[in-house]
Amino acid sequence: MSDEIRDFAMPRLGMAMTEGTISGWRRRVGERIVAGETLLTVENNKTEIDVESPWSGVVIDLLAGDGDTVPVMKPIARILIDAPL
Fold this sequence. Notes:
- The protein has strands spanning 4-9, 19-25, 32-33, 38-44, 47-52, 57-62, 69-71, 75-81.
- By secondary structure, the chain is mostly beta strands.
- The strands form two sheets. It has a four-stranded antiparallel sheet with strand order 1-8-6-3, with no helix packed on it.
């Protein structure tokens, strides 16, 4: 089985949320991440929220940088998902 690349989108962290500001990435390109670990911190309405990765794998691209404000559901990172054993 081959690995799969998945886009990670800016999550909707509240009913009225339409965009979020990336406070900081916790993983860099080339770093491994395990499902449930913090991928980034997002600021919304003066609140900072840690956002976890839903997948285990390797971060292969960051599509937005620290301080960028991004609409909900727009891809912000790409993760190479580990193939199941």
